[in-house]
Amino acid sequence: CESAFMMVPCGACVVTLLMALVVGRGGATPMPPDPRHLVEPYIVNLDTAPEQRWTALVKEKRAALVLLLDIIRPVFELYAPRATRELIAASTAALPSEYIKEMEGIAAAASTPTLNVTFNDVMMANLFYEITGVAKTPLSTTAPRSCTSMVAQRSNGTVYLARNQDYPPPFTLVMVHAIFTKGGVVQYEGTTYAGTIGLSTAMTHRGTTDNWGVSINARGNPLFGTEEGLVNAVASARAGGSIFPIFTRQACEVATSYTSARDFFATHPLIMPGYIILGGSQKGHGAIITRNASSTTGDHAADVFNLFSEPPPAKDFGGGKWFVVQTNTDHWVEAPIYPDSNISRREQAVDGLDRVGDVDVNLLAMWDVLSTPPTFNADTIHTDLLSPAWGEYRTYKRNGPLLAE
Description:
The chain is built from 12 helices and 13 strands. It is 32% helix and 20% strand. Strands 1-4-5-6-7-8-9-10 form an 8-stranded mixed β-sheet, with helices on one face. Strands 11-2-3-12-13 form a 5-stranded antiparallel β-sheet, covered by helices on one side. Strand 4 and strand 5 (185-193) form a beta hairpin. The chain is of the alpha+beta class. The longest helix is centred in the first third of the chain and has 18 residues, at 62-79. It starts with 11 loop residues before the first helix and ends in an 8-residue tail after the last strand.
């Protein structure tokens, strides 16, 4: 067979505390992926009781999980008590009972006779994106605001998806490659963090023609830090709007094809704005979906920017030919220059793919593009490489503590 890698055989104090744990730093010269840096896999058996699905992982990662909760909890209690309290209550009332039970099981597994981790602690961790997106906290400055995702189609029609996730580097301590099975068969897989149940990157296993992969990137909230923004977010959560990483997992469970996934991501209600980058297993299966937060009137406004958009936009900054690239700026808006650089992350990625060309693009070439600064930077903690048609999913640790040499 052929590989998708090569088409040949086979507050300031909080930020300081977070950054003090960092031991890895990005380099300027791309190196090939190191198999020693693959994120460790964990099987989530969907046939077991929801309360038990994450128990072994949480017990293994308990010390790191408790450390991160001890950093996050006091910050949210001090800077965002109302946002935290109201978003937890609204989301708890609306989430499917199966997800509630999984979080209850996580809280129980993380607790010890001398340490009580509550359900609200776990829900708070799952709502990290939403809380930091509505409330001004020191952690809002280190929230995931600088990811890069791309979908590219090779000249033979093979579609690939790759992404960097930029996040506080200590989160590598709880990072995991979750593989969800039912009846002993893999249903979907993705990258997540112990203590949470959603997925930042994911790929389904529906058969070679129906597989699809997805990554999510943060989008700025125009109502950040305002009363209106909090009220709207709580109302969306109460009405069934999804927590962003859980949104990804929900799609994996209900969308049986690329088209149905694209429709789900474009229409299902969301608590917060976001970008969804989608790639399938057939020619032309790739898109950036730009989402607003959902309103109580049912407005889930979405812009869908497909591969080979016809007619091509006169000036679009996100590609639109044989590839699309999404960072954290709307694709129709010019992206800001990265600090201490002369180029934006998106422009660097677009230029890199242009140099590779559709004849030679593969996952290794996309790795090289994603390993070039400033697309690759000090906060890049994992890079994910997906080939839905091949059923290939790899997630690699980049920067962060305890990175193997």
